[in-house]
Amino acid sequence: MVEYVKFSGVERFYGQNNLLYSEMGILNIIKRILALKKLRREELMLKIFLKKKIGEVVEGMQILDKLLPHVHFKFKPYEKKKSRDEVEEAVEELDENLRLEQELEQIKMKLARLERG
To answer: pLDDT at position 76, please?
Structure first.
């Protein structure tokens, strides 16, 4: 036995409206997926083209490297990195210098006050 449900005009309109919007959304999604597939194919082709061009450039650079004369430089040895103790000493010296500068400024301010008054 088959049962039927009767919809009023407003319910029918609402249902058809939602169904059409859903179909439109699905079609837009399909359209975007197809556009994405097309862009991915183009991307793959461009990557292949770029790889070929990079290979040509590398070959050209290898040929150029063989043709150009090689010059050997004598480099100075690298400076030894400062140890943690040396860095801490430098920071302490800087702090001490800052403290001396602050004391000098305070003395100058006191002298200026004495001269005024």
So the answer is: 67
Mean of the pLDDT values across residues 22-47? 96
SS3 1: coil
Residues 30-39 as b or e (16 or more Cβ within 10 Å = b): eeeeeeeeee
Do the beta carbons of residue 7 and residue 15 sit within 8 Å? Answer: yes
* Helix and strand numbers, DSSP H then E, in the chain: 2, 0
d(C-alpha 71, C-alpha 7), whole Å: 91
Q: Record the pTM.
A: 0.46
Q: Answer yes or no: is pLDDT of 19 > 80.
A: yes
CA 90 vs. chain centroid, Å, equals 35
3-state secondary structure of 64: helix
